[in-house]
Amino acid sequence: KNKHRGDDFRDFLNEEGILGEAEARALKQATSLQIARLLKEKSVTKAEMAARMKTSRAAVDRLLDASNSSVTLNTLGKAARALGRKVKIELVPA
Q: Can you tell me whether residue 91 is helix, strand or coil?
C-alpha cells in the first residue's frame, strides 16, 4: 500500500525533507517570472534594467534565472525600484 495515498503534496515534500527547498525554488521562480513580465510590459531591456539598478547585465540575468537562488534582498529591492515597484515580504503561519 502507498504510504502517501491521501496525503497532499506538501505533506509528501515535508516527509521527504525537501519542503523548504521546494518552497524557496517556487518563490524564486515566481519572482523571476514577475520581473520578466514587468520588463516586457514596460518595454525595458536587460541592459536598461542593469543601468537603472546600477549593476551589470549579468546580475540582471541572475535575477531572471529561476534556478539561481543567490539573489539578495538588496538586489531584489533595486530591481523593484527600477520598475517602479516595492518589495513586500510577509511572514505567515507555517
A: coil
Whole-prediction pTM: 0.82
The identity of residue 31, as a single letter, is T
Look up residue 3 and give its amino acid.
K
- Closest by CA to 19, choosing from 31, 10, 8, is 10
Give CA 7 to chain center in angstroms.
Answer: 27
Q: Which three cell numbers stand for residue 17?
A: 525533507
Q: To 10 degrees, what angle do helices 46-53 and 73-82 make?
A: 110
Q: CB under 8 Å, gap of 24 or more: what pairs does 70-76 form?
A: 71/28, 71/31, 76/31
pLDDT of residue 64: 96
Q: How confident is the model at residue 44 (pLDDT cuts 50, 70, 90)?
A: very high
- DSSP code, position 53: H
Instruction: Tell how far CA 37 is from the center of its chain.
Output: 13
